[in-house]
Amino acid sequence: MLAAVILRALRDQRRAPLTWGGALGAMSALMALVWPSIEGSMERLMKSYPEQLKEAFNITAINSVETYVDAEMLSLILPLALSFLAVRIVTQALAGAEERGYLDVVLTTPVARRTLVAGTWIAAAVVIVAVLAVIAVMTLIAGAAVGAHPSALVLGRGMANVWPLAMLFAGVAALACGRLHRAAPVTALATGTLVAMYVIDRVGKLADPVAPLRRVSAFRYYGSAVRDGIDPLAFAGLALAGALLAVAGAFLLERRDVR
Amino acid sequence: MNASAAAIELDRLTKRYGAARGIEDVTLSVQTGEVFGFLGPNGAGKTTTIRTLLNLLHPTSGAARVFGLDSRRDAAAIHARLGNLPGDFAYDPRMTGRDLLVFLAGLRGLRGVGRGEALARRFQADLDRPLGELSRGNRQKIGLVQAAFHEPDLLVLDEPTAGLDPLMQEEFLAFVAEEREQGRTILLSSHDLDEVERVCDRVGIIREGRLIAIENVAAITARAYRHVTIQFAEPVDAEEFSSLPGVSELERANGRISFRAEGDLDAVVKQAARHTVTDIELSHPTLEEVFLTYYGAGEAACSPR
Questions:
Q1: What pTM was estimated for this model as a whole?
Q2: Strand, helix or coil for residue B123
Q3: Which of A52, A143, B74, B137 has its CA 20 to 30 A from that of B97?
């Protein structure tokens, strides 16, 4: 039954690697393509940035195509976009399906509500991996085409680091689906949490009074895997937190009415 | 399968939505192999009762049992043995009927779609077009197929003929009769008195969230009146008809008389046959009229078995 739920959700999202991966991959590839032409002026540009701004956006030194893609894509666009995609996948399959009356058919089969939540979360995990892979491959190809030759390992770990962050917000969406019956409020709640956490983390780096709040932000544990490598504890912690939130969402969904 | 066992038992089942009314103290029992009609106007509580029975809604109080199993605790075991057609059936408009059947077969742990293809041919359901491209009636056919393809012991059908053309309604009623012959239990919700009369053994009538009566179909048919209009070749004496048993509200105009008739129409037909009849029209009252006539506002004549 779990396999059927996962396969169905994957089929529903079969275009995501092409649409999301293609669009974001094109942006990332563009960064790799322009790198050789701006490489020489980057040192001067970096010196002109205020130190706090560089700290806020995890920019220490942009001296390679990987660090350039890290600064332009992996510090803001990809974490936010793929977290939103993960939220969207979970929300469509749960609250969206409930809102449209689809769950009456699914939940009068022997499948348990917790299986539905688990399958949806797992499918989101697979789709995010696929989208990240497309982005990474497009970036590597573009970099190679202009002779920048980005490291697959370094770029790959940067991309991989986005995955647990996105899955945390998939968990937030699953939790919200455990209480709410419609897609719009679930999306608003999950993306609101996403944006709030991002802002808290960035402002916390710039303003000392807000700094303690960074502990509650998932972005505090995201860091820069291109520069520092993947922090296994943060990686596992974020993914585990996402899974636990999904479990809590399943628990709530089991105990409420389906409208 | 034990033929005498109750397939469905509702015991003082109550569902409230905050201060809003849902259903109140619904108690009934549907025997295995029975076709039970659930009658009531829109908003009466039919769908709420069914969705509570199916564990989509959790009861405020009371209990529901299906095949002797608790509807909440044993939901998965119950769902393995039932097929459900929700009211206003809808599913992902991008999916074809075949995709849906394969998906549901997967959820049920089945390798194939069973008699899905045969049912689709019978109901002339197009399994290869996306649901979003189908008319309401054609989508409803897919709904019927997905409810029954796995040969469930219990079929729960909420307004099953909504949107179906008359020919397909006939096919559906024949299908229900065949399912009953095979020992399956069917709970059928409807607001169409004729439909329920034709296939159901018993009916439960629900109004404003309360089950107000459970009757044999024969009994409710006998209690239901008809509007009769007879056109004669020549004017007739209205007194001939007004004195017949069960005739009331008689009106006469030219060669035509109209009246309300309760019970059987044998005396009316015999009396009309004394004259030259050029046209005759019989119409059943709407369910709303039946309620107003037989149960009256505020009356709760519940007699569950």
A1: 0.85
A2: coil
A3: B74
